Amino acid sequence: MKKLISASLIIGMTLAVYGTQIWDFLKPNDIMTKEISLSIAPESNYTSAAYTNSKATVHVVVTKVRGNKQTIVWDKTFDTIQLKNYPRLNEAFAENVKIPGVIDNKEKLVVKYIITYDNNGSILQLQSGEDVSTGNEKNNLMIGI
Questions:
Q1: What distance lies between CA 48 and its chain's CA centroid?
Q2: Cα 29 vs. chain centroid, distance in angstroms?
Q3: pTM recorded for the entire structure
Q4: CB contact set of 94 (below 8 Å; sequence gap of 6+)
Q5: What confidence tens digit (pLDDT) does each residue in 5-64 have?
Q6: Is 16 helix (H, G, I), strand (E, B) or coil?
Q7: Which pLDDT tens digit goes with each residue over 67-120?
Q8: With contact defined as beta carbons under 8 Å apart, do 56 and 80 qualify?
Q9: What is the pLDDT of residue 43?
Q10: CA 142, 55, 50 angle in degrees (round to 5)?
Q11: Do 135 and 104 touch, CB atoms closer than 8 A?
Q12: Does the N terminus or the C terminus of the chain have fewer Cβ atoms within 10 A?
């Protein structure tokens, strides 16, 4: 009986200390390269005279999150362009972002973007974002100006 209790305690302690490593060995990580297709286009018609001097800048940041740790894996600020010169949806600015080495079952990607509007020196910033879906290697994100 003492041998059974001792063996149970040894197995219990081993699982408590090395449980994560044992689980990783039994169920290996799903490492993949994630691709995010960004499209930037206006959601409104900016041809009115009220928008003649209005401009917008888009700043996009992709962050890899694992537990409480966040790592920026891609960061880009797109050129400042007058609102009336942004291409329509069928000709949207496109950017394909590839993030290698994502452990899909343990990490997630978060895409955040800040749109800065400048109308004759009056500045307005809007921030938004979304999580990249798990299990998919390719994801699409439309950023509406």
A1: 34
A2: 20
A3: 0.77
A4: 37, 38, 39, 40
A5: 777 777 777 767 776 666 666 666 778 899 999 999 998 888 888 888 899 999 999 999
A6: helix
A7: 899 999 999 999 999 988 888 877 888 899 999 989 888 899 999 999 999 998
A8: yes
A9: 87
A10: 110
A11: yes
A12: N
SS3 145: coil
Helix (H) or strand (E) holding 134: none
CA-CA distance, 80 to 101, in Å (whole number)? 32
- The three-point CA angle 88-91-94 to 5° equals 115
β-strand partners of 131: 110
Pairing, β 122-131 against β 108-119? antiparallel
What phi and psi values does residue 90 have, to the nearest 5 degrees? -70, -10
